[in-house]
Amino acid sequence: MAAMDIRVGNKYRVGRKIGSGSFGEVYIGTNIISGEEIAIKLESVKAKHPQLEYEARVYKSLAGGVGIPFVRWYGTECDYNAMVYDLLGPSLEDLFNFCNRKFSLKTALLLMDQLLSRVEYVHAKSFIHRDIKPDNFLMGIGKRGNQVNVIDFGLAKKYRDPKTHFHIPYRENKNLTGTARYASINTHLGVEQSRRDDMESLGYVVLYLLRGSLPWQGLKAASKKQKYDRIMEKKMTTPTEVLCRGLPNEFAIYLNYTRSLRFDDKPDYSYLRKIFRDLFVREGFQYDYVFDWTVYKYQKNAEAIAKAGGGTANDGAVGGSQAVITDARAIRGSRTRNAIARAEMDTRETGRDRI
User: Fold this and answer.
1) Could you tell me which residue ranges the Protein kinase domain spans (predicted)?
2) How far is it, in rounded angstroms, from Cα 339 to Cα 329?
3) What is the pLDDT of residues 47-71, one digit of tens each?
4) What is the pTM of this model?
5) Cβ-contact 137, 115 below 8 angstroms
6) Three-state secondary structure of 19-78
7) 94, 131, 152, 197: which is the annotated catalytic residue?
8) Can you tell me the mean pLDDT for 22-31?
9) 83: enclosing H helix or E strand
10) Is residue 131 among the annotated active site residues?
11) Are strands 148-150 and 37-44 parallel, antiparallel or unpaired?
12) Contacts of 48 (CB under 8 A, 6+ apart)
């Protein structure tokens, strides 16, 4: 579908395509009344496995939460299902690459505090995400440039009845749903996912961001199944102390805790937030929201100014605490025109069960 004067919901004009993938296409759109830029996700009505309506319903169930994009409109236009929602900034994967593929302890802890809160909120609304990864966490833009947002609920599933809180039953022989790199050990083993699996995946995400990579990346195999089996074996045989080597003990505590949870256990989110907040204070860090990409962008601006032979280093700074987010397109680089597209459109090995 080429960019043209197409409107959805009567007041949103579809602009240029900013991403595509196995589940649809994402466009930048404009509210023709207010001029505000938004994101529009389109899915063919003939899609073999339509998921956009389901995803829009999940967003509606989560509406009002901090860091949950607001869906302005969902419906069908011409031959497409369309979802109009907030335009966001770069993903943590984009920022990770921008910062030469490693985050400082301070940045990781600033992020982890918000990440735990986002996952806790999703769980409080009776859903599990089932695809926790850096691509699915996006920073905001403008005044919300320091806020972490969680996206891509196409694989989300209710783990309990919202009214009775009756938990789904334990099952085995399930297909791997999500992204193998960050999948929990139990997910690899074919066990039905629950809250504990989102939490374990989050542990792998923060370790990836701190270490620069995970030991089970880049494994070769003759088939997809063999590759997943190799990833599982490496996860199961890599001791926690090896995985967390060189990092504060809190990360090993976190991983051991999440791996010890039973199927229907409620994670102690407050306890986990506290151990990382205590570490943050003990390290002497400040909650100033100066992330690595803030500093990196400042340095690049300062170098450019110095090279040009004019101005001072301060001329390179962007006002306020959201510094680098203002220049989100530079961070995204040539890989993608918008981080939302990359995170939403990432090809995944998925199970289709949401019952």
Assistant:
1) 12-281
2) 9
3) 988 999 999 999 999 999 999 999 9
4) 0.87
5) yes
6) EEECCEEEEEEEECCCCCEEEEEEEECCCCCCCHHHHHHHHHHHCCCCCCCCEEEEEEEC
7) 131
8) 84
9) strand 80-85
10) yes
11) unpaired
12) none
